Amino acid sequence: MIKHQGPISKFVLHIPKEIVLDSFQEVDLWMLILSRKSVKKLNIINQNRMYSIPSCVFACLELRKLHLYNCIFNPPLEFQGFPNLEDIYFKRFSMGDNIGQTVFNLPQLKKLKLYGCCDVNNFNINAMLLRLLHSKQLYAVCIRLSKPIEDSLRVERFNLALMSSNLPNIVSFTIDGYFLKVLAAEKFPNRLPHAEKCLRQLEFQRFSSGDLDQVQGALCMLRNSPNLETLHMTHMQMGSDADLELTSNYLESHDSLQNLCMLQSVEMTSIEGSRPELLFIKLLLDHSPRLENMIIRPSATVVAEKRLNIGKDVMLFPRASSKAKMVYLD
Fold first, then answer.
1. What kind of fold does domain 139-330 have according to CATH?
2. Dihedral angle, C-alpha 282, 286, 287, 291, nearest 10 °
3. Do domains 1-137 and 139-330 have the same CATH topology?
4. pTM of the model as a whole
5. Fold of 1-137
6. CA–CA distance, 128 with 137 (Å, rounded to integer)
7. Do residues 309 and 278 lie in contact, with contact meaning Cβ atoms separated by under 8 Å?
8. Hey, which of 19, 116, 243, 319 would disulfide with 324, CB 3.0 to 4.6 Å?
9. H-type helices in 167-320, by residue range?
């Protein structure tokens, strides 16, 4: 490799278990050489003891594909991300001590697969183009888009059923209204092939009750989360494109929610008192027999009289739970 002239586009390294290594010194040297050869695809299949990826690999900014087996991902403190990386496959992988709460920028990442990995909850990434996420180890996932995607129909095979099957053990999930719009490119089913049985905490951010796609997506997720305990919804200010009549009619004419038998706590933030918002609250109260607390916070832009009317309305709604305590924070 030292004598090789020119770039090395792809490098595959297999370290079999039959080879007893006292150290990975030679492997580290190969990685150093690769970091100077504009490598684009790196695949390390290590069946020996765990290999700690050296810092020089994190200088390979032209990487497009990174597949690692039985390695330790321990980037230097100054590492910010791989600007061109499109495909990550990590198996039997451990996150190092340097990660902490660092968010890595992976602006071109489209595929992320994690299998048998440790400490993946410390693996925080910013990946706006991500299309495939598959992991049985992820327990907390947050997906937020900074702005709407104009043509969500062009997002390949991204739907709620696929996402649910790829994240079977998720416990806490945060999603925003913009991403719900992406998922709406394919019609939301009444039942998902795989219910989110492990999901305990669900949060919707930048949610608009005046958007039918978002309302249908939220109700689909609630229907398919039988063990959900906590729900938090932060509403965004509705624009001129909000169709309040359409979403209100949908919420009134459909038995769109089954009993949320485990739901205990709900928090609704920044509501404006629109009819679909109130109908959504009423729906939750009607179908939550174990509800203990519902906290409602009106938007700061709502005038005092409207705030008072919102409080009066929600306090009069019937409740499936005799223990449900309504807290209205005016």
1. 3.80.10
2. 90
3. yes
4. 0.75
5. 3.80.10
6. 21
7. no
8. 319
9. 177-183, 212-223, 244-253, 275-286, 304-316
